[in-house]
Design brief:
Number of domains: 3
Number of helices: 20
CATH topology of the largest domain: Rossmann fold
CATH class of the largest domain: Alpha Beta
CATH architecture of the largest domain: 3-Layer(aba) Sandwich
Bound molecules: S-adenosylmethionine
Helix content: 40-55%
Shape: globular
Structural class: alpha/beta
Low-confidence stretches: 290-336
């Protein structure tokens, strides 16, 4: 068979055995889980690679990338299958938490210990994340009486991503969250409208090709103060994630932090970290030794080891209770009847707050909208999302159950309800809900799913739902906590 004919066959009809071999290879090489929903996309990528390399068929291509001499083509395939979606200052509440809490705390500690502050941007994609971290660090350092040297180590599996990070030149969407002051301070503009990161910031960032799954971390034990690994582990299996988090733990110093993406969690992965809430964001702290040094502005820790149900009243619950509730009169007309017009306004404001990542405010406004218009499904969904994002899963459960009761076909509500159930330890119910979400998601308006998808397609989310449902069932069957 010619390579062109082989490519056509692979694109149109990969057999189950062939797909299993391909998916197994990628899981082993990069920890990436490719389920059936990603089959057409993966087949198309591999068909292109077969045509480009002249391989006789898929078996020959697999043999080539599995052999030591196939290292270049193996890398090329990994470059093609990874998803580089990113932008500067992604997740503003996390950026604020870094600026106001984590970086000042870590810098003071580094000064006290006379060491360099080391930040690892693990899975840095095209560089927007590590440069954002370096810019924040430079800003914070300028406000302190004494600041340590800062180095950001940026690593990624993809050679294309690493090359783009080294180039440090950006345009378009990835700059959307950069404000005028930061443009002025941290970027040089080019005639074609693109922007380069200034040398001062580039000099703080050390870029390396690195596979988080197969390579040892490029650090000594305890050398790192802050690991930022966001939106990387979403396609990793729980076992891969557990191994990786173990490696993060080993390279972090006592009191160091791990920051993950807003949709990622260490729940059921490890008990070795303490969840710390930071306004509308959260981070995981590697526990300090028994007699911790005093930390200025230390954030309030939240125990994250036991299922939330069994915790009587966590600091998080207390924090939730202290959120200002909307005044009762705000969502009623003068005669005390729910006021749908007012609800529409409140819901619009809640959505705006959510989009701008002011989660506590979004939850409060959405709750008020729901009270003013009790059949307004979106109000419960917005409230549930806002509460779940800051780790208030019990509060999210209440809102999301109402949403699903009112709109059983709202796939996004079902997906979020399933997540909240799982995190609260209600695994059998979570499995049922994940399966219901897998059915409902393809029928849900795409616009409702944009935030959830974050660059993936709906079929990938469906597969994730099935996988998570199976995982919940397995834990119920084995009675695993
Ligand atoms: C969606 S981007 C996230 C970028 C950035 N962290 C952010 O949140 O904006 C995911 C990145 O993870 C990288 N990645 C995936 N698997 C990896 C692995 N096994 N080792 C290192 N990087 C990996 C991909 O190449 C991609 O650049």
């Amino acid at each position: 068979m010619t390579a062109a004919a082989a490519a056509v066959r692979v694109r149109s009809a990969v057999t189950d055995a062939e797909y299993a071999a391909l998916a197994g290879f990628l899981a082993q090489q990069a920890g990436l889980v490719f389920d059936q929903t990603r089959r057409p996309a993966l087949a198309a990528i591999v068909a292109d690679r077969i045509a480009a390399t002249g391989a006789a068929d898929l078996g020959a291509y697999l043999a080539r990338i599995s052999a030591p001499a196939g290292v270049e083509e193996r890398q090329r395939l990994l470059d093609e299958v990874t998803i580089p979606e990113t932008h500067f200052f992604r997740n503003p509440p996390q950026m604020e938490a870094l600026r106001r809490r984590l970086l000042p705390e870590l810098m003071r500690r580094a000064v006290a210990r006379g060491r360099t502050l080391t930040i690892w941007s693990a899975g840095c994609s095209t560089g927007e994340e590590p440069y954002s971290l370096a810019m924040l660090a430079a800003e914070v350092a300028a406000t302190l009486p004494e600041a340590p040297r800062v180095r950001v180590v940026a690593t990624d599996l993809s050679t294309q991503a690493v090359a783009a990070t080294e180039r440090a030149r950006y345009a378009g969407r990835s700059l959307a969250l950069v404000d005028a002051r930061s443009f002025e301070r941290w970027f040089d503009e080019h005639d074609d409208g693109s922007f380069s990161v200034v040398p001062e910031v580039r000099g703080m960032v050390d870029v390396r090709l690195h596979n988080l799954v197969t390579d040892e971390p490029p650090f000594e034990p305890g050398e790192v103060d802050l690991v930022v690994c966001r939106n990387v582990t979403i396609y990793f299996s729980r076992e891969t994630m557990r191994d990786l988090v173990g490696r993060f733990q080993a390279v972090l110093g006592a009191g160091g932090y791990l920051v993950v993406g807003h949709a990622e969690t260490l729940w059921q992965v490890t008990d070795a970290f303490t969840l710390v809430t930071l306004g509308d964001a959260f981070a995981y702290r590697k526990d300090l030794p028994a007699a911790p040094e005093p930390v200025v502005d230390a954030p309030e820790p939240v125990a994250h080891t036991a299922p939330r149900r069994e915790v009587r009243r966590t600091p998080l619950q207390r924090a939730r209770e202290s959120w200002p509730e909307a005044p009762a009169v705000a969502h009623r007309s003068a005669d005390g009847v729910p006021d749908p017009d007012h609800a529409t306004d409140l819901l619009r404001l809640a959505r705006e707050a959510l989009a701008q990542t002011r989660y506590a405010e979004a939850a409060r406004l959405a709750a008020a909208a729901a009270a003013a218009s009790p059949f307004e499904v979106d109000a419960y969904i917005v409230e549930g999302r806002a509460r779940a994002t800051v780790g208030d899963d019990e509060g999210a459960l209440v809102a999301l159950r109402k949403a699903v009761y009112l709109a059983p076909r709202a796939g996004h509500a079902r997906f979020q309800l399933a997540g909240a159930l799982a995190r609260c330890g209600e695994r059998a119910a979570a499995a049922r809900e994940y399966r219901a979400a897998a059915v409902a998601l393809p029928q849900t308006d795409q616009a409702e799913l944009d935030d959830l998808l974050d660059g993936c397609d709906v079929q990938q989310l469906v597969v994730l739902c099935r996988r998570l449902a199976d995982e919940c069932d397995r834990r119920v069957a084995q009675d695993v906590p």
